[in-house]
């Protein structure tokens, strides 16, 4: 008789499967590892390792995309405050359009308003989150992935979005007769 057989007498029925409450605690490490089914085995990832970094990129890629857009907007606001005059205003507006690419679609340069700005912020945040998640899914297919690869892919996809937003501004300026 094993020393823990008295404790092993406490049995719970779950899904027609007999399981002992204390057997896993009292069993040796080898018994615990080999007796687990493959569905209950967790993947223990080394913190900062390849698998952990891939998982972090996949989980937080969209939120980092929103963070990049907020950083660009903040950079534009600081640059507009440092550089005075029309050049500072144009620089600040350019970075705001890069951070909020939906602004030209809502007619923001010609017409303003708080509700349009909040709508542009919300739609742009969803857009940046989506692009960040798409980039994370594309990058995480590679065997070794990190934030450097994510940023490279994000810059490529973001560049297309930024060119489209700038094109919208140029078309709007042409339509209004600015050039």
Question: What features would you describe in this structure?
Answer:
This protein is mostly helical. The protein folds into 2 domains: 42 residues, no CATH class; 127 residues, no CATH class. Helix content is 64%, strand content 4%. The chain is built from 6 helices and 2 strands; from the N terminus they run ββαααααα. It has a two-stranded antiparallel ribbon with strand order 1-2. The longest helix has 33 residues. The termini are far apart.
Question: What key phrases describe this protein's structure?
Answer:
mainly alpha, disordered N terminus, two-stranded antiparallel sheet, 4% strand, 2 strands, 6 helices, single chain, 179 residues, 2 domains, elongated
Question: Could you tell me the radius of gyration in angstroms?
Answer: 27 Å
The DSSP helix count reads 6
- Taken in chain order, the helices and strands follow as EEHHHHHH
Largest sheet data: 2 strands, antiparallel
What is the helix fraction of residues, given as a range? 55-70%
Poorly predicted runs:
3-16, 20-25
* Average predicted confidence as pLDDT: 78
Name the strands of the widest sheet in spatial order. 1-2
Strand fraction band? under 5%
What is the CA-CA span between the terminal residues?
Answer: 94 Å
Q: What's the number of structural domains?
A: 2
Structural class: mainly alpha
Described by the principal axes of the CA atoms, the overall outline is: elongated
The total strand number stands at 2
